[in-house]
Fold this sequence. Notes:
CATH superfamily of the largest domain: Periplasmic binding protein-like II
Radius of gyration: 18 Å
Structural class: alpha/beta
Oligomer: single chain
CATH topology of the largest domain: D-Maltodextrin-Binding Protein, domain 2
Low-confidence stretches: 1-38
CATH architecture of the largest domain: 3-Layer(aba) Sandwich
Mean pLDDT: 87
Amino acid sequence: MPQLIGHRAVAGGAILAAAALLAAGCASNPATSAGSGSGSSASASAGTDPKSLVPADVKAKGTLIVAADASYAPNEFFASDGKTIIGMDADLAQALGQELGLKVTVQNVTFDSILAGISAGKYDLGMSSFTDTKEREGAVDFVTYFSAGSSLMVKAGNPEGLKPNDLSLCGKTLAVEKGTVQESTDIPADTKTCTSAGKPAVKGLSFDDQNGANLALSSGRADGVLADSPVAAYAAKQSDGKFVISGQPYGTAPYGIAMPKGTGMSNAVLAALKVLISNGTYTQILTKWGIQDGAITNPVINGATS
């Protein structure tokens, strides 16, 4: 999400009453895109026991505190009890913990404060639909694990005739979650396109979580919502026909699991993720949440494409 941002990563990052699924129609053809950056996977080769790579201080603690903003279904959101965090990232965090021999606790944290919390040592991992970007890699390490883009969600029938990355957005209000790539990159880019054509700027309306952005659309405060493609797709599906996706996802990029920089934890997480991919657990988790189109086959450390 933020200037250490990416898709809501917001993580990313939408839900109505039920939350928002990760990127629309999910991401486009992600089989290899997350491994196409400058990252390295050589340090955690196949067959390496992930437990043997866990840093001594983490192993001694025996637990992983995983931060996630639980407003971004189906990647991370609250169950009906309002307390338990569920979703793709929550399931994957637990599966990684098993391979690493560590107990996992997933905590709800405001998205735009997660990376700072990781750098400060408050959290061991951030699994909240973060897009792995070169800028963010200056503060944290990432292990890529998914591929997603951005999508434009509008009211049924698209009464304003909005299209993504189009002059139809000029002068319109688009709701986004704070700290997301949609807020920091997409809105400014669309505004530049509009003003360069002599048209009014796009108006960004930012919210602390994806639920607020979705409610702005339903209440008429916003003309559309920009969110990660799986999340927008899920929100539209859960809206009982009130919302639809306009156009196709764009800006496909890898999601990354964030962790403190230079600690060696990235080697352990990469090795554990490779085990989950090879034994089928990874595919099962993504399929459970309907986002298997965003699967990758070659995770890497710090694989940002931009």
